[in-house]
Amino acid sequence: MGQNKNTYCVIMAGGIGSRFWPLSKNRMPKQFLDVLGTGKSFIRSTFERFLPIVPVENFLVVTSESYKTLVLDHLPELHPDQVLAEPVRRNTAPCIAYAARRIAAANPAATMVVAPSDHLITGEAEFQAIVREGLAFVDGNEKLMTIGIKPSRPETGYGYIQVDTAPRAETDGTSICKVKTFTEKPNLEMARVFVDSGEFFWNSGIFVWSVGGILKALGTYLPEIDAAFARGEGKYGTAEEQAFVDAVYPACDNISIDYGVMEKSPEVYVRCGDFGWSDIGTWGSLYQHAVRDEQQNAFGGGGQVLAYDTRGTVVNIPAGKVAVVEGLEDYLVVEKDNALLICRRASEQNIRNYVEDVKYRFGEEFI
Amino acid sequence: MGQNKNTYCVIMAGGIGSRFWPLSKNRMPKQFLDVLGTGKSFIRSTFERFLPIVPVENFLVVTSESYKTLVLDHLPELHPDQVLAEPVRRNTAPCIAYAARRIAAANPAATMVVAPSDHLITGEAEFQAIVREGLAFVDGNEKLMTIGIKPSRPETGYGYIQVDTAPRAETDGTSICKVKTFTEKPNLEMARVFVDSGEFFWNSGIFVWSVGGILKALGTYLPEIDAAFARGEGKYGTAEEQAFVDAVYPACDNISIDYGVMEKSPEVYVRCGDFGWSDIGTWGSLYQHAVRDEQQNAFGGGGQVLAYDTRGTVVNIPAGKVAVVEGLEDYLVVEKDNALLICRRASEQNIRNYVEDVKYRFGEEFI
Q1: pTM surpassing 0.95?
Q2: Which residue of A has its CA nearest to B304?
Q3: Taking the mean position of all CA atoms in its chain, how far away is CA B359?
Q4: Please, which of A123, A220, B23, B82 could form a disulfide with B78 given CB 3.0 to 4.6 Å?
Q5: Which residues face B158 on adjacent strands?
Q6: CA distance, residue B361 to nearest chain A CA (Å)
Q7: Minimal Cβ distance to B358: which of A322, A326, A327
Q8: pLDDT in tens, A114-153
Q9: Could you say which of B321, B323, B342 has the minimum Cβ distance to residue A325?
């Protein structure tokens, strides 16, 4: 049950995490932060989570050119060649097409797991078992597997995966199911129906497939993207790779692998799990996972906080600072470097807009 | 109407302004700040306000030893000898007793005006006329005059002065009245009665008297304090002064000149004025005087602010920073150096307690 030299891991680390502004900034996005105070950044935790399964030389991290140094700071075990630099952001489909070509050039028989760099997984052993099971499931065939999470609440911030028949791990010994539909983020009413039905699972954005399987699917469902990266044959893993990628990337469609491939292919399966998982995509999800005091306040960031008549409030300030807060209920207070955010927790979905406004009004130096 | 060589001005600048924390800190209290964005600190404005009346060499500033350098930075026209250093804080009576002895040693025929260093006065010309009138009124006698302000609202944050008969400047050509009582800060109901009566005026804490008059009153009503400073005769204005003051000060009662002398002497008069005045003693009074936007928000400190769904809120952040605030109504948001305060404007009277708590919990470096 150790590492398999045919197994590769692609960590997607290009996000800019603007919903976590100002904690997460362009220069230091969420994947490089330890917002939960675990002592490790998200990307470091992600790397270590796969290290029992994937040989260190088989990791690839896809990120922005500007984060390459940061990635290597957090993952010093990697050779710089293992960090793939996207010249522009084009969502997950081009990112996966690129990484799959790079892996195929080195090992056409590879299986691969693709994961975001900034998720929280607490049931690590169960997760690892599911990844191993998935790698075995897709090895040598063209099945595309995604990992679903048993929903614990009618979350409206996630996409859902509907299974053809609900998994019956207790009876038939397998919980890998065919996928019926992928859904967008539902409204609350719909999310309740999803959860009650037992047929819907959170879409974790973690994928398992063989390199041959994903390249076949890309060729079928996203032929332009596939063709663009296919033209690089002979350049992957060489000194010519970056220049080729820089030339090809900007013309790629901005499209997710979910929308471009997973929703269209009949070869799509989901392995549902019940390990602790969160995309920590919002302050709300961070709040769910944070240590809270008796008034349900969550303080983090290393600074000192004195709270009076304050409930349900997140305060995140850096070490060496003190915050006195009074009379707040269900607010976010986040201060970092040259920016301070105070807003209702219920308004967290607007933070992206605030960041855009700050950028437009006051400039890039604040975001 | 120019300067008079017998006229002295004592600026009291020992306050630590903890109600303005964290804008005002121990190392840089309110009198040295320009919280209204006028381009000048309060102490500088105070100095310039008296400069047409008092020769520059006749100014004295009484402050803490630790602020002596700051005072000279703000008032470079002064000789270091003109800054009197209190070794400990003992309220206004010892401060005035000390300054009066110092002045008497140089000029027993002096008249003097005593003023706090951190008030706002907008009707400067009218104020100056009143000070001149007062100086003439007390010259060569033992009358003690204070300046009262016609109240524009039932303010509960100020002490009030009741006059024996309401001033009738229109009819008898004078508005200097005998004082009937000094009152503590009233509750709102009482403040309304005060304002409606026409007999009550805000106590500005600005005094005018002859040096002989105040020394006589101190001898009568605060004999211990008077005797302590009388023992320094021959040392004022010499190299021995500071050591003498350092020895005498700690044993002095902590008592205000209002309570110790003004409330007791029958020689007390008030000149009521209607110039624009505020002690800017609280964020609320600063808010009253600040430029506000359509939502009645007041932004200051030099930083950039984006406000959404926010009303009646003060945001004060330093230049180079950006704050995004959402969903606040009637709050204070103040950030400076290593401290952030967020509280309801209605809770501003508690800020002193918060500062004490911060000091106790986290140490002096934050206050």
Answers
A1: no
A2: A362
A3: 25
A4: B82
A5: none
A6: 9
A7: A322
A8: 999 999 998 888 999 999 999 999 999 999 999 999 998 8
A9: B342
